[in-house]
Design goal:
2 copies of one chain form a homodimer. Chain A is mainly alpha-helical. The first copy, chain A, has a domain of about 80 residues: Arc Repressor Mutant, subunit A. In chain A, a hairpin with a 7-residue loop joins strand 1 and strand 2. In chain A, helix 3 crosses helix 4. Chains A and B meet through helix 1, helix 5 and helix 6 of A and helix 1, helix 5 and helix 6 of B. Chain A binds a DNA duplex through helix 4.
Chain lengths: ~150, ~150
DNA sequence: TTCAGATAGATGCAATTGCATCTATATAGA
DNA sequence: TCTATATAGATGCAATTGCATCTATCTGAA
């Protein structure tokens, strides 16, 4: 199997756009959250996963898989979220090392408030710029860059 | 003019993919650079811009425009690059506040070594996963999310 | 000219991240 | 059962980032 060491011009261009656009969009969303006096995007990611998980909660290592954050970042982010009473840590019965993380009512409320800003940003920055068909094409192309690639 | 506050499912999916894929790819490239004992991606971005700019160099504020890094980050990154002799700072004649940044020979060499790793990563992570035509389509779609949007 | 912004870049300090390592529990094999 | 290894999560310390502000120079209007 041949592995090329140098990327094609098309690959470089797609890469450059991906880097630049994602940086730009993240920054705009972070700014919008700050303007609203809301916590950073990373908090949303965690609260979102926990809200989806429901009453059963999630183990920290499951959050790591889902969010792709580093272990030590999750550990500390959870400490901050707990100190704000947005989550609670529950010792888990059958594994003395672990804990289950559950979102609190206040956590759900914070997530909801963040979504009004975050969702609006997505609508403006992405939804308003491409028609549905092209959004789907974009998602499909990006899915194939995922590891492992999305099958669709 | 109607501004929707809630994003469509297609917009949310494209957004989620964009966030996840860009995070994943950046992390893989950073890991590859670390494995090679090379500096982080941000150094490449700056060295690349300076190499493109040639002997004339660039002002820090031009680097800020091109890389989208925050002003204080550029200021400190340049200090680190200078302490490694990868760039040099030259006072600029017609503006006593400013300076021109020029890449050194050692800087070019470092950039070249980084590119062997970075370029290979792009080839593997992006180039090998989509054919040229789809890479171009991806770049075009991303270009329309840019601010201001790319015209092509 | 003069002075009130505006612009270029640096920096003190607090918060976050990254790295390496640590503790505690779990698990598998001798 | 005992021990070596693996896994879950936390943490000390250094480096980086973010925020606010600072200094210095420049520009334009009175």
């Amino acid at each position: 199997m041949i592995e090329k060491a140098s990327p094609s011009p098309a690959a470089i261009k797609a890469w450059a756009r991906l880097m630049r656009v994602s940086r730009q969009l993240v920054e705009k969303v972070e700014d919008a959250l700050k303007d609203g006096g809301l916590p950073p995007l990373a908090w949303y990611d965690v609260l979102h996963e926990l809200a989806e998980a429901g009453e059963g909660g999630l183990r920290p290592f499951q959050l790591i898989e889902r969010t792709l954050f580093a272990q030590y970042n999750v550990s500390r982010l959870l400490a901050r979220l707990e100190s704000e009473s947005l989550i609670e840590k529950i010792p888990v019965a059958d594994d003395g090392r672990g804990q289950t993380i559950r979102i609190t009512g206040k956590g759900r409320e914070t997530r909801r408030r963040m979504w009004t800003v975050y969702g609006r940003s997505i609508a403006e920055l992405v939804g308003a710029r491409l028609p549905a068909e092209e959004l789907e094409m974009l998602a499909a192309l990006l899915g194939r860059l995922r590891h492992p690639p999305a099958m669709e």
